[in-house]
Amino acid sequence: MLCSSYMCVLVCGLMLAIWVDIGVADQFLQGEPGLPGRLDEFAKTMSSGFNATEVKLDLLNKRQSRMATDLLRLKTKSSQTMKMLYTMLTYRKKFERKVLAGINSIVNTLEEIKHCLGCTCPKGYERYSSATCGTFCYRFESNNCSSWSAARSVCQAEGGDLLVPSECYYQFFREKAQQHEGTCSHFWIGGNTNTPGSNYVNVKGDPVPSSFSFWSVGQPDGLLGESCLEMRSYLTNYLMNDYHCDRPEGFVCQI
Ligand SMILES: [Ca+2]
Hints:
InterPro entries: C-type_lectin-like, C-type_lectin-like/link_sf, Ca-Dep_Lectins_ImmuneDev, CTDL_fold
Keywords: Signal
Shape: rod-shaped
Order of helices and strands: HHEEHEHEEEEE
Helix content: 40-55%
Structural class: alpha+beta
CATH superfamily of the largest domain: Mannose-Binding Protein A, subunit A
CATH architecture of the largest domain: Roll
Oligomer: single chain
Signal peptide: 1-25
Protein name: C-type lectin domain-containing protein
Bound molecules: calcium ion
Number of domains: 2
Strand content: 15-25%
Domain C-type lectin: 133-254
Largest sheet: 8 strands, mixed
CATH class of the largest domain: Alpha Beta
Radius of gyration: 59 Å
């Protein structure tokens, strides 16, 4: 009895469910009021969404394409800029070289002007300066061995003369002579005589007296016609001597 009641309820439930489904299907088939409209609206919305997406994608493609073009242009410009910079650097180097050459030229000119003004000595000459003995330029020639006359001509061609012997600075030149020894022996200096052994005068025409402190012992002796003045190295360590004018010796120029 209980079993048949349960079966009855189950059967009734199944029948009710089938009835409801049939109702819904029927309702759908007959058309729910407003549903087609909403479906159309939904379709339109979807279509509009797709269209909008396509437009956006198209825009993105165009932007991408424009960016690619811009990048290419930028790359070209960068390349041109690099070339321009390289050219500028090249010109700058050339310009700097020209400026340096110009500066060197100015410096050389200033050096020449300084020489002309007597601030410094000509090339090859050294400067002598003393509060009591004055200032001048000098050079020792140790390898171009010459007669007294030829040596004097060389010094005169350089704008000076042979060194004038002077009490004031003779000792200084004795010491310098030792530092300038070369191929030639002894050094001619600026003094001679027409009467060997006496009446010596310097190249300025002033007398070189026999009382001169730096005559070598026993000099001047005018031996066998010696009549030109030298700083003699042998035995006397560059004290002054009269000697044969035609002998080749070194010499000292003074400007
Ligand atoms: Ca002598």
